[in-house]
Amino acid sequence: MKFGKVDHPELVDFTIPQDHEDTAVVLENQGGTDKMNVYVGCAKWNRQDLKNFYPRGTKDELVYYASQFNSIELNATFYRIFPAEQYEKWRDKTPEGFKFFPKMTNEVSHLRRLNDKVYEIADRYLEVTSLLKEKLGTIFLQMHNNFGPKNWDRVVQFVEYWPKEFPLAMEFRHTDWFTDETIANELYHLLKENGIANVLVDTAGRRDMMHMRLSNNEAFIRYVGANHSSDYNRLEDWVTRLEQWKHQGLTNLHFFVHQNLEKESPLLSAHFIEQLNKALGTRLTIPQTLEPKNKSLFD
User: What is the 3-state secondary structure (H, E, C) of 6-59?
Assistant: First the structure.
């Protein structure tokens, strides 16, 4: 994942910003709870991307991956809509409690950019994606970097069309969605009123996407490691913030680990999950890797 990549991550201030004031308002109405629905995963499960993860002789990568993680950010569905039987195979290969968080096809987000031709495509996408049944998590729609607020009417029409039985998260990348306060407020209220999650992206070169503004009781976080020693501290800072959000009422956490160069996402994930279990009292499986958990990626 090269989005937000910088040449010198050691120069970036990775401090997590203070929450937007609306986040507390959203969470305070949820009521504190001891139970959190927590899903942590990577973006892909193929051996080529996840180095030092699959034991020698692994025959089915998804089966093994799902024995170590409880979720996957399914990026493959961004590039094409698969045949129905493929979704059924994915569903049947994974254990009870596992969830897929698939990305909306780029035909909708990038090629047709939410124009009036996307609705038939979205319907076709949902028809097959729904075959994941109880293993379908939140679908997320990622817009192109140059999809700006001039397209506001398209966003409104798409949100109003979206079937509410399918949880949706939306990721906007054009900087004006965040830096223009009036536009940011309008977008936030549209998402909030329609129960759509406002995706947070933690990546080195786009700190403006750390708007820290939740629009519902779902923290959908896409974390991008910079292949730098700071990656660990950044994850620990997230644990601290998530513990705070839990006390405020957050009950749904969906956290996906990427790297600019996918080398050790499982190792980073293992460290994050271990810290999360200690802080939040969760009991997520800590993924086994072929490297010691305490080994630095950057030694």
Answer: CCCHHHCCCCCCCCCHHHHHHHHCCCCCCCCEEEEEECCCCCCCCCCCCCCCCC
**Is 198 strand, coil or helix?**
strand
**Tens digits of residue pLDDT in 15-70:** 999 999 999 999 987 655 568 999 999 999 988 888 779 999 999 999 999 999 99
Identify whether the C-beta of residue 183 lies closer than 8 Å to the C-beta of residue 149. yes
By the 8 A CB rule, do 240 and 279 touch? yes
* CA distances from residue 122 to 102, 106, 152 in whole angstroms, order as listed: 13, 10, 19
Nearest CA to 106 out of 160, 145, 56 is that of: 145
Instruction: Give the CA distances from residue 199 to residues 22, 54, 67, 220, in Å, rounded to whole numbers and listed in that order.
Output: 15, 30, 27, 5
Phi-psi region of 97 (alpha: psi -120 to 50; beta: other; left: phi over 0): left
Say how far apart CA 185 and CA 168 lie, in whole Å.
Answer: 19
- CA-nearest of 227, 218, 280, 291 to 255 is 218
Other C-beta atoms closer than 10 Å to the C-beta of 277 total 16
Give the residue ranges of DSSP H helices in the chain: 21-28, 61-68, 84-93, 106, 118-129, 152-161, 176-179, 181-193, 230-248, 265-280
E strand or H helix that includes residue 171? strand 168-171
Per-residue pLDDT tens over the stretch 103-153: 999 999 999 999 999 999 999 999 999 999 999 999 999 999 999 999 999
User: Which domains can be identified in the chain, with CATH numbers?
Assistant: 9-280 (3.20.20.410)
d(CA 152, CA 135): 32
Q: What CA–CA distance (Å, rounded) separates 211 from 201?
A: 9
Predicted TM-score of the model (pTM): 0.95
Q: What is the DSSP string of 89-120?
A: HHHHHS-TT-EEEEBPPHIIIIISTT-TTHHH
Count CA atoms within 13 Å of residue 242 on its CB side: 31
Taking the C-alpha atoms of residue 264 and residue 165, their distance in angstroms, rounded to an integer, is 35
